[in-house]
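FW: tagging you since you asked about this chain on Friday. Here's the raw sequence from the shared folder, copied in full. Didn't touch anything.
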Amino acid sequence: MGIIEKITKKIRTYFFLKELKKVNRRKKVVGFDAAKKIGVLYDCSQEDHYREVVDLVKRLEQQGKSVHALGFVRHKEMPQYTMAQLNFSYCHRSDFSLTFKLKSPQLQNFSRAGFDLLIDLSPHDLFLMKFLAGLCDASYKAGPYSDEYVEIYDLMIQEKATAGIKELIEHTIYYLKIINPARNDQ
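HL: got it, structure written out here
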């Protein structure tokens, strides 16, 4: 890692931790069955990722879940395979300020949506989506394992380097279904 990358990483870590302290989040264990409102973060720069997330959202909705998926587009223009859908939205680098503040109302609304469960399917190298996952006020957050982002998630799924998004989705859903939080006596 070169000197520029190290400096950039320190700067973004500083702003990330500063913003993370401001998040007002009521953490609680939420299993798959208990989750009614689900947010999904992903990288939609690849068509196969987009298709897998569309399938996931359809499956979740068929199970009575309210789902909103937010995809990050690495290109300046929207890929042709994306379609305007009610529960899908997209963001670009330009939706974040240089100090990583959320510029667009769309991102601000997503971060304050009050999801029961946030599922982050974005890759390790997509810092802006990790940043957004950290700012999200979801009760329970699940995402791929990374030493850098341990403070963000309540559940982390470690995959082989060769695993694709389909495996990450299946393993995440599998482990979320195992979680059955203790019920409080009312």
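FW: The beta strands are 37-43, 66-72, 88-91, 117-120, 140-144, 155-157.
HL: agreed, and The mean pLDDT is 89.
FW: great, closing this out.
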